[in-house]
Amino acid sequence: MPLKFRPLPWTTGPTGRPRQVGIEIEMAGVDLTTMAEAVRAEFGGRVEHHNPFRSRVKVPEFDEFVIELDARILQDRRYREHLRALGIELDNEDHETLERWLADAAGILVPHEIVAPPLPLSALPRLDRVRADLQQKGARGTQSSLLYAFGLQINIEAHSLTAEWLTAILQAFVLLNEALVKAGNIDLTRQLSPYIRPFPGNYGRLILQPDYQPAMTRLIDDYLEYNPTRNRPLDMLPLFAEIDRERVWAAPVEHELIKPRPALHYRLPNCEIDDPTWSLAQPFNGWAEVEHLAANPEQLQAAAGEYLQRPSQALGQFTDEWVERIRGWF
Questions:
Q1: Cα 132 to Cα 225: distance, rounded to the nearest angstrom
Q2: Which InterPro entries does UniProt cross-reference here (predicted)?
């Protein structure tokens, strides 16, 4: 029986409307045309191929899916500037030939990616059918090569933009991070990459203190002090920029890469799309466990107290207990 998507404890967003979720799926082994057609077959709409690096599927029901080679220098065609600096000018036909060659060559190392627009939670099984279709067509994921640090990113709309709710989410995530790594078999290549570096231990100990009940300004300032980067398994910068853009923009962060939005950016999971037993429900359910812990103040406080009382080298049992619990939802 296919694994079901676990319901979240909070079903509405800040405006009271049903929460939405955007998914980014990285893979290799299939070209952009095949990926775009898989999306169109499930969601309908019209495919537009812009260049060898980027396509769109315009779906009236949900806006547009972006299918792209995840290399900004290619998408923006900035390589043309480097060629001009070398005195190389190409005509249109030469550019087309070069771009096809670059797309083929870059596809060996650079992930092809489906970036879904915000979808209602009820549409996740439909996106999972796209995943299953591409698996059948040869898509490859994180563990098919040592060169692939591919991931699956979940942009889940926040239930609330209050400091109280966001603090509980951050606390729950810090407590569960290691358990999610173990339960999700997060690939070593991805763990060693800079993209999902764990929260610093001193930040975790700060926010897990029983008297840590910050106002929004302090919550953001503390986060920026310890985490002036997008490279966290839970990236809060887009959401904090949505709440207080000037405060985030004043920090030494990657401004050009931050897109303000009222969503939590969960970056940890692998993309195991080549495994027929894997589905989008597995990483989503890992996130759901974070929210269920955050929704239980007594359990959250007890777990934080236990975490703080144990020295770092003795946290293995604590993590293992959570791994066993979470694996029931993977």
A1: 41
A2: Amidoligase_2 (IPR022025)
